[in-house]
Amino acid sequence: MTTSTDDLSPEDIEFFDREGYLVFEDFIEPDLNQRLMADVDAMIEDRQNETQRRLIDYPELGLLTSHPPMMGKIESVMNSTFAMHHIHAARHDAGSGGVAWHQDYAQLPHTNRSHAMVHIFYYLNGLNGEIGDLLFVPGSQKSIVSDGALQIMGDGDLPGMVCVDTLPSGSAIMVHSALWHARRAKPGGEDMPRYFIDVSYCQNGVTWPGYGSHKAINARALELGLDREGRYAHVYDSSTFFDAHEYRSDFDTRNQGSLVLQLKDL
After folding, report:
1. What share of the chain has pLDDT > 70, as a percent?
2. Topology (CATH) of 2-263
3. Whose CA is closest to 18, among 30, 10, 7, 6?
């Protein structure tokens, strides 16, 4: 399904709830698209020089986390406010490897899908069948599995799988974070590396596991004005997250038998 860059229709929202994805072709306007690619190039150069900068410190990457045309779409599918979980960026050059089947929903442990989490995949110079294709299984977000449970499948074909290998520059794909997806390595691309950004957001209403650096990142985002004069201050609300590392060791020790029995008296 491909939607326009206009507001989401009830049909769009119903499709996302059922299938777990929406495609927005030509979503990022060309000038901004070029500036975003320049930021990714600067990030790659900084890392090669062992210069550490948070992604939100790159001007266009930072502002992309509160890009108004996308904020409205996320609010539509969630019917709620939300907060940013993370931003990643990469330049996949010729010969880049693939990524096995997985899902990215943040939960410890995986027991339900009561609240929505979405990933926005930005393909700055599109997809052309080289370097890597996006694979996903529509509707699979409804199955509750841990994030690495599917890696044994590699990037092989799955029943009902969709392969996206053609997209125009500046396109975006919104996926429910629990959607099973993979990247299949492809030959070619020597003259056209793939510029990729993903930004993830969590629906308000529960506290989500974070990376532990969310407080510093959100404070910096507000300092930089990424909330666009307060309009999107909720996107950088650190109270939406807890540091999963602080709980994981104790949980692993106590996680025995059926969890429902440990919760029955709460």
Report:
1. 97
2. Jelly Rolls (2.60.120)
3. 10
